[in-house]
Amino acid sequence: AQKVTQAQTEISVVEKEDVTLDCVYETRDTTYYLFWYKQPPSGELVFLIRRNSFDEQNEISGRYSWNFQKSTSSFNFTITASQVVDSAVYFCALSDMDSSYKLIFGSGTRLLVRP
Amino acid sequence: KAGVTQTPRYLIKTRGQQVTLSCSPISGHRSVSWYQQTPGQGLQFLFEYFSETQRNKGNFPGRFSGRQFSNSRSEMNVSTLELGDSALYLCASSSHGWDRNNEQFFGPGTRLTVL
Q: What is the pLDDT of residues B14-30, one digit of tens each?
């Protein structure tokens, strides 16, 4: 069965610190997609990144970077030089053929960036 | 391009009543998915509609139903409301649905409170 685990329930850092949010997934499919979403207090889920299972290249977008490792079934997200505006709940999600491509979310990690 | 809109944004109902939530996807998008978010269960998939047909359904009781109109707008209905139905209901649209290269764009959600 598919599963996404975000073991860190809450992380608190001081502004300008780097922070890594962990995501471990389980799937039997060889073709699958991984996502990260940000949910600010307003409630709307904001898409951050999508990765397919055949592309293990790490990606960097500004202060954000993602490390995809199939060997450990992990898709970790790092924020460099965190800012107060990064405070939100971050969700990792999996989509595969077995689940008919619906999004299976982890439980989320609440990030608090203190000034 | 306008984003996903959901109405109403907030709703208060009492046990036993029924409720209808509405979602208008991004123009041109034909797939609409619904998710329920609660503190205890997290984000859970309800169902997906594509071209007026339900193509995927999550593990929710029959009290939860939905439909999609020819203009891709979708409604979900919950009958005989229970206290546990209190949640944030999120709608997501994507252009094709089965092509997982298309990310899902989420609306702001409808927060339902059942008293």
A: 999 999 999 999 999 99
Residue contact A33–B109, C-beta within 8 A: no
Residues 6+ apart with CB under 8 A from B37: B43, B44, B87, B88, B89, B90, B109
CA-CA distances (angstroms) from residue A38 to A28, A89, B14, B31, B51? 26, 6, 31, 21, 28
Q: What is the pLDDT of residues B32-78, one digit of tens each?
A: 999 999 998 999 999 999 989 998 899 999 999 999 999 999 999 99
Chain A nearest CA to B23, separation (Å): 13
Question: Which class for B39: exposed (0-12), middle (13-18), buried (19 or more C-beta within 10 A)?
Answer: exposed
B10, burial (CB in 10 Å: exposed 0-12, middle 13-18, buried 19+): exposed
Return the closest-CA partner of residue A53 out of A36, A65, A35.
Answer: A35
**Are A113 and A94 contacting, i.e. CB atoms less than 8 angstroms apart?**
no
**CA closest to B9 among chain A residues:** A43
Q: A26-35 pLDDT, tens per residue? A: 999 988 999 9
Question: Could you give the CA distance from residue B55 to residue B34 in angstroms, rounded to a whole number?
Answer: 12
CA distance A83 to chain B (A): 23
CA nearest to A1, candidates A37, A25, A35: A25
φ/ψ region of B72 (left if φ > 0, alpha if ψ in -120 to 50, else beta) reads: left
